[in-house]
Every structure is written in C-alpha cells, then in structure tokens.
Amino acid sequence: MSGKVVVNRCMSLDGFIAGPGHSMDWGNGRALADFVAPDDVAQVAAATGAVLVGRRTWEVGARMKAEEPDSGDYPFSGPVFLLTRRPLVPPDPNVTILAGDIGEAVATALDAAGGKNLEVLGADVAGQCVQRGLVDEILVYVLPVLLGDGVRFSAPGLARTDLEPISSTRSGDSTILRFRVREQSRRPG
Predict the structure, then answer these.
(1) What is the pLDDT of residues 94-108, one digit of tens each?
(2) DSSP 182
(3) 45-61 per-position pLDDT tens digit
(4) How far apart are the first and last CA of the chain?
(5) Within 13 Å of residue 38, how many CA atoms lie on the same side as its CB?
(6) Is residue 152 part of a domain?
(7) Do 53 and 8 touch, CB atoms closer than 8 A?
(8) Looking at residue 1, what is its pLDDT?
(9) pLDDT at residue number 133
(10) Smallest Cα–Cα separation from 103: which of 5, 30, 3?
C-alpha cells in the first residue's frame, strides 16, 4: 500500500497558519507541542515517511530552532526535501534540495517515503499541491488562539476544493481535524 500526500498545518481559530512576519509562536512562547498531546504528534510522525517543505517555512523553522534549540522537536526520522531554487548556506547533508515542477517534487518525495505518508509543510508548497490535485488528506491542528493577522490557511485565488471530513479529535488543548480531498486530478508518475 502506498502512502498518502498529507498537508499538515497548525492553525489559529481565526484561520492563520502563522502570525505576522511568518511567526509560528502561538503565544507566550508556546509551540505546537505545548497544545497537542505528545502521543498524537508521535502517531502522525510514525505514519510519515518523508517531508516536503517550502523555503520560507524551512527558514522560519531554522530560525526558531536557532533561538530555542530544544523547542519543537518533531519525532520524525526520514528524508526531508526542500523545494527551493536557492541552495542552503551552509549545506545540510540531511536535506535534499528539489527545484522545478511540484508534481515531480511530490513524486520524488512520496517515493522516498517508502509506503508511508508524505507530509507537506508550508503555505505556498501546500497551495501548489492542492491546485494540482496532488493532496490526499489535510490534517489541521486547530489551536485555541486568535492571531488577528498573519499567513492565511490558503492563499487568495486557490480554487474551490471539496473535502470530506474523516475525523475530529480533541488532543490536549487543540482539536485535530482530518479531511480527505474529494476532487483530485491525477498524480504524477
């Protein structure tokens, strides 16, 4: 059985996946791990075989990790693919740079997932994947905060995408929502 392409997002109740300046600080220095039960995060990570992330999300995550090295540890240990046209400086031997067509990037990363899920992170990359019909599921951690401004869950201009609710679960102080994408065009490959 092959894995699924899963867009994974944290979101404030008012629909932002990051605050102003792309900040992923969810208030009082709190990160996702402060809101969600550790077993639920571990379960998602265990089902994930590879991660495809956009450059801006990568940079925000790297900045957060530099500021607080012990924050936000995600119990995932698989290949990480960064969709960008610019090399990392300094290079990271644990990251594979992909550039070009989003369909090819998803196919490469999904193949590397080894039958597990491909987790897609980043607003722009996720939007490209949804537009091209490459997403099987959307997983959203709804956090109990109103940010008022920031990066919206989906960019303006994204075409209507019908979703089928799979589950809604309380986890710590958050609610985890899972949706299956109903209308999907063909996958690459």
Answers:
(1) 899 999 899 999 999
(2) S
(3) 999 999 999 888 877 77
(4) 16
(5) 3
(6) yes
(7) no
(8) 55
(9) 93
(10) 5
Q: Which domain holds residue 11?
A: 5-181
Residue 189 maps to a domain: no
pLDDT of residue 64: 66
pLDDT of residue 186: 39
Number of domains in the chain: 1
pLDDT beneath 50, residues of the chain: 185-189
Q: What is the pLDDT of residue 176?
A: 96
Quick one: residue 147, left, alpha or beta (phi over 0 = left, psi -120 to 50 = alpha)? alpha
The pTM for the full model equals 0.87
The answer to whether residue 122 sits within a structural domain is: yes
Establish if 186 belongs to a structural domain.
no
- Percentages helix, strand, coil for the chain (3-state, rounded to 5) are 25, 30, 45
Burial of 181 per CB tally in 10 Å (0-12, 13-18, 19+): buried
Rounded Cα distance between 11 and 133, Å, is 22
Tell me whether the omega of the peptide bond preceding residue 90 falls within 30 degrees of 0, making it cis: yes
The owner of tokens 């995060």 is 41
Give the pair of three-digit tokens for residue 63: 């900045």
> For the domain that residue 76 is a member of, what is the CATH number?
3.40.430.10
Q: How far apart are CA 169 and CA 51, in angstroms?
A: 23
Bridge partners of 65, per DSSP, are none
CA angle 157, 160, 165 (to 5 degrees): 135
Q: What is the pLDDT of residue 163?
A: 94
